[in-house]
Design brief:
Layout (H helix, E strand, L loop, with lengths): L15 H4 L6 H7 L3 E2 L2 E2 L4 H8 L4 H15 L3 H10 L1 H13 L1 H9 L25 H11 L15 H28 L8 H27 L8 E6 L1 H4 L9 E8 L2 H18 L3 E2 L12 E2 L1 H10 L3 H6 L4 E5 L1 H15 L8 H14 L17 H15 L11 H10 L5 H25 L12 H10 L10 H24 L2 H8 L2 H4 L3 H10 L5 H12 L4 H17 L5 H14 L5 H8 L1 H13 L1 H6 L18 H4 L2 H12 L5 H24 L5 H26 L8 E7 L1 H4 L9 E9 L5 H19 L10 E2 L12 E3 H11 L2 H7 L3 E5 L1 H15 L7 H17 L18 H15 L11 H10 L5 H25 L10 H10 L8 H22 L3
Parallel strand pairs: 4-5, 4-6, 9-10, 9-11
Antiparallel strand pairs: 1-2, 3-4, 3-7, 8-9, 8-12
């Protein structure tokens, strides 16, 4: 459909059908009104025709104009003349006539009422609610209508019975007419102000409360003024009436309370309900205590007693909207003040949050399936989704923030956004969506002044077209107005549902609800009390951190004040809450200017839980997190595909090398490598502490990042020495020990040996001199002072140890092994694996050492005996003084050394004959030994469990203590942290030690059976 432009300087030159009229006789009928001549509008009436054509339903508007002309008779000339000159009147009258058949009928039956539309609002683009009557003015008008004195404390009407009902109905219709005219005026005259839906809703609520007051005055007269003289009756508005967000057609939810004779109060309340229901809208008192079965009105004490003993969660939620609207206002205020403490403590009830969520689910389940997708109010993504989300947040957070205690949905939503309880974008999107859905709801109700919340069905083309025009939606070039309407409605419901699920099912809500209301306000007294109760070692020191985090009036401070009661509670259940809070303060300060940080903790409950847990459990993480706070973004995921655990080691290594490759200076490259390594170490540590990964994955990830750092540092050192001539040597770095076996821990050094090979035309001396300078430069860059975990490269496993050359040529290395190799050196070569440098040289190195680590014919008996003697000497001499052998993860009973020496002895004996044993990995070798029947299933399982348990315990102990350690503590906070991270109950950390001893004891028994028998 082509929409006519807004024009004042030219006459329309199109037939009525092209303007939007669909009736074939529209032209003659317009001509009969004197507004159309042939194919053109009469010049003097052109603006009238344009406004009429823009109505939501031009044909309906035209038909009603004709009926009004008939009703007005001689008065038609006045109206017709006013329409030609008064833009505001045109917009309001035609807006109403094309948007509501019911209000059109009202104007036909009361045609002189058109004069009311001249003074609703003067032209202008900014709405001004002060131009609308106030709530007090409306009340006066309605009381005057039934002959009651507004100045009396308890007005009594002079008109009763059907006459009073008719007068109230007329007053209500007049008010609704004025509001609808203001609401719809910009549809027909775009230059007139557009009134926001919340302004209209508030005015409708004022009209309803004025009607209630007048109906009460009629009830006093009908029951008998002298009989109710001693009765104080308070009328409490609930629901949309209480929240000043009423629809055009809606129940008026109320609760009654009285002071005085109960029988007279009940008669007065029931009569008031009847009068109001007959006159304008149905008055519903079913939200009262005990619902339909309960007394219609109770005393204040009766209400308080009920809510203290019997009220359910939904009843407190309903009281969020309670406000005095009629009758004895002082009594109404006493009611609200008496129940407020119960409302704002309701969130502390058992299962409060699940109760509210279950209630929303029940509402959805009761929607008819055939209309569920069209339900603007109750359906998924509808108005109730917004209201339930806002009310749940309000009940949870409003205990500590009085700015959230208003009854109005949009005002509370704005306060939630301003206070930082939800994101600004989420608040704005939710508010805009709510306004749009309320606008559609208002329009479909206005059409016939019937209570409905249904969006037109797809086959109701006329209804969709009417609603699109009534909502001022126009074609956008790709779609007609109906298509725009359907797309916008669909997009809005999807957005509302997404935000509803994000806010309504936010995990943090459960945690906040469990915090006592008195502790949500972090005063010095409440914070000190809470910190002491949660077991802080130094409540005064912690209080200083809390004060620093919450000081000021900034949005960040407000969010911190909302978050900290929950975060403190979570920290209080960790092993070291004092250090965790200090780390949280450092992280907060490091990210003070980053908008996503607090939003992540607020919106992703799992992120807040995880952050507090790792900060309060691990000093290692607590020290590193402030230097790499970007890892926080990874804490919000869950499950096996979460970012925290989903990164592949090879992918990490590749990205690290690519980032370092842009730096030619080894020290600069080393700094970048350390920074990227820190992020990866922190990611792995968090996943490890949270139990989201296994031992093998942790070891593989730590090894991969170490190897990538070595490769990056080596490449940077080579680039620094690059000249015009080719490098005199190629270099390979061979990982040994845990690095070679892909079994590194958090505190492990990188054991390596370096080998080189001369380039064409270069001597061995030139090659080794060059290679040594490169390797020394790389090691020095990695070893530069840094607050991060040390990057220590250990080369003592090279031939001749510390006294031997740092780098040998491949041929020199082969010559050394051929002439001087000792048994322990062959054993060490079992874990040799190229990790950096020239891949071809690394491959040839592994081929060269194969005969020494996988000796043909197996290991001679004398060498096996030598290995057993070395192991016995290590057991006797290497264990630190005072260490508990049963709890030493490396050298203790059934620990890493026991398992690894056993596996390596079997590899030296059988790897030549069993190719699957040719692996540097302890776990892979254990699998191969069992498959080759060199270990029984029970022994393989015991050794695997011992190695895995010791490795994980060693890593977790390092994370908890904040420094490398091989010894498990017997008691104290450190043991509590280790036990928690290993999955043991907080109240029984000793079970962790018992389990560790049991597993390692079984491993030692397998070692005793196997190691000596090989």
């Amino acid at each position: 459909m082509t929409t006519p432009p807004v024009a004042r300087d030219r006459r329309p030159a199109r037939a009525p059908a092209r303007l939007g009229f669909t009736e074939p006789d529209a032209g003659p009928r317009l001509a009969d009104l004197g507004w159309w001549d042939g194919d053109d509008a009469v010049p003097a009436a052109a603006l009238v025709v344009w406004a009429l054509a823009r109505a939501a339903d031009p044909d309906l508007a035209l038909s009603t104009v004709e009926r009004m002309r008939e009703s007005l008779g001689e008065g038609w000339a006045e109206l017709e003349g006013a329409l030609r000159v008064d833009q505001g009147l045109r917009g309001r009258l035609f807006g109403v006539l094309g948007g509501s058949t019911a209000l059109g009928d009202h104007l036909v039956s009361q045609p002189e009422r058109w004069r009311l539309l001249r003074t609703v609002l003067a032209p202008g683009r900014v709405h001004d609610t002060s131009r609308m009557p106030s709530a007090e003015d409306r009340c006066r008008t309605h009381l005057d209508a039934v002959g009651a004195d507004p100045e009396q404390d308890a007005p009594v009407a002079s008109v009763t019975g059907p006459a009073a009902v008719e007068l109230l109905r007329l007053a209500w219709r007049d008010d609704v007419l004025l509001l609808a005219a203001a609401d719809l005026q910009s549809v027909c005259e775009p230059e007139l102000p557009f009134w926001p839906v919340d302004a209209i809703s508030g005015q409708l609520a004022d009209v309803a409360t004025a009607g209630l007051e007048a109906a009460l005055a009629v009830a006093r007269a009908e029951v008998g003024a002298e009989r109710v003289a001693g009765v104080r009756l308070g009328v409490i508005g609930m629901g949309k009436c209480g929240g000043r967000e009423l629809n055009y057609v809606s129940d008026i939810d109320v609760i009654f309370l009285h002071d005085g004779p109960a029988d007279m109060a009940t008669r007065l309340a029931s009569t008031m309900m009847r009068v109001a229901t007959e006159a304008f809208l149905e008055v519903d008192a079913n939200l009262r205590p005990e619902g339909r079965q309960g007394q219609l009105t109770r005393t204040l004490d009766g209400h308080v007693a009920y809510y203290q003993r019997w009220a359910r969660t939904w009843e407190f939620q309903a009281l969020l909207k309670a406000r005095p609207v009629a009758g004895d206002r002082e009594l109404g205020r006493e009611y609200c003040e008496a129940l407020a403490p119960m409302v704002w403590s309701a969130a502390e009830r058992d299962d409060f949050v699940p109760d509210v969520r279950a209630m929303r689910k029940r509402v959805e389940e009761h929607i008819r399936h055939d209309v569920a997708d069209r339900e603007l109010k109750l359906g998924r993504g509808g108005l109730r989704d917004v209201e339930f989300a806002v009310q749940l947040l309000q009940l949870v957070h409003g205990r500590g923030d009085e700015s959230l205690r208003g009854p109005n949905t949009l005002e509370t939503l704005a306060a939630l956004g301003e206070g930082g309880y939800i994101g600004r974008d989420d608040a704005a999107n939710l508010a805009a969506s709510y306004r749009f859905l309320r606008l559609l709801e208002h329009r479909v109700q206005l059409q016939r002044l019937r209570r409905t919340h249904l969006f037109p069905s797809d086959d109701d083309t006329a209804g969709l077209r009417w609603l699109a025009r009534a909502a001022k939606l126009r074609a956008d070039g790709r779609r007609d107005a109906v298509g725009v309407l359907q797309a916008e409605q669909s997009r809005t419901t999807v957005r509302v549902r997404r935000l509803h699920e994000k806010l309504f099912y936010r995990p943090l809500l459960d945690s906040v609800a469990r915090v006592a209301g008195s502790d949500l306000v972090l005063t010095e007294e409440s914070a000190t009390r809470r910190l002491a109760a949660l077991g802080w070692s130094s409540p005064s020191g912690a209080l200083k951190h809390v004060a620093a985090l919450t000081a000021g009036t900034s949005r960040a401070a407000r969010i911190q004040r909302a978050l900290l009661p929950v975060l403190l509670d979570q920290l209080g259940h960790t092993a070291d809450p004092d250090h965790g809070l200090l780390a949280y303060r450092k992280v907060s300060e490091a990210l003070a200017s980053t908008p996503w940080f607090l939003a992540l903790l607020r919106d992703e409950g799992v992120a807040a839980d995880r952050l507090m847990y790792v900060l309060g459990t691990s000093r290692w993480v607590a020290e590193m997190m402030p230097r790499s706070p970007e890892v926080l973004r990874l804490l919000g995921g869950d499950g096996p595909t979460a970012d925290l655990v989903a990164r592949e080691p090879d992918e990490v290594a590749q990205s690290l090398r690519a980032a370092v490759a842009r730096h030619t200076d080894p020290r600069s490259a080393g700094n970048v490598a350390r920074s990227l390594r820190r992020v990866e170490l922190l990611r792995v540590a968090c996943a490890d502490l949270l139990g989201l990964t296994d031992v093998a994955s942790v070891c593989r990830a730590l090894t991969s990042v170490w190897a990538a750092v070595l490769q990056a540092a080596l490449e940077a050192a080579i680039r620094e020495r690059a000249g015009d001539s080719p490098a005199p040597a190629t270099i390979a770095i061979i990982g040994m020990g845990r690095l070679g076996g892909s079994e590194l821990g958090y505190g492990s050094d990188a054991d390596v040996v370096a080998v080189c090979e001369p380039a064409a035309g270069a001597t061995d001396q030139e090659a080794t001199t060059y290679a040594r300078s490169v390797v020394e430069s790389a090691i020095a860059a990695l070893g530069a002072p840094s607050p991060d975990p040390a990057l220590e490269v250990d080369t003592k496993l090279r031939p001749e140890g510390r006294s031997g050359p740092l780098v040998r040529t491949l041929s020199s290395y082969a010559d050394y092994l051929r002439r001087w190799a000792q048994t322990w050196e062959c054993q060490a070569l079992l874990r040799a694996r190229p990790v950096a440098g020239d891949e071809d040289l690394g491959r040839r190195f592994t081929e060269m050492i194969a005969p020494y680590r996988y000796p043909e014919g197996g290991l001679p008996d004398e060498q096996a005996t030598e290995i057993r003697r070395m192991k016995a000497r290590i057991d006797a001499e290497r264990l630190p003084r005072g260490a508990d052998r049963a709890l030493h993860t490396k050298l203790g009973t059934g620990g890493l050394a026991d398992v690894e020496w056993t596996v390596q002895l079997l590899q030296l004996q059988h790897a030549a004959a069993v190719p699957s044993l040719r692996t540097p990995s302890t776990l892979d070798a254990l699998v191969a030994l069992q498959e080759a029947d060199l270990l029984t299933e029970a022994d393989a399982a015991a050794l695997t469990a011992g190695w895995t348990t010791a490795t994980r315990a060693r890593g977790i102990a390092t994370l908890v203590r904040g420094k490398p350690t091989d010894q498990l503590p017997r008691s104290g906070r450190e043991l509590a942290g280790i036990a928690s991270a290993l999955g043991f109950a907080e109240d029984d950390p000793g079970a962790c030690i018992d389990e560790y001893r049991r597993i390692t004891r079984h491993a030692r028994a397998a070692v005793d059976r196997v190691f000596s028998a090989v």
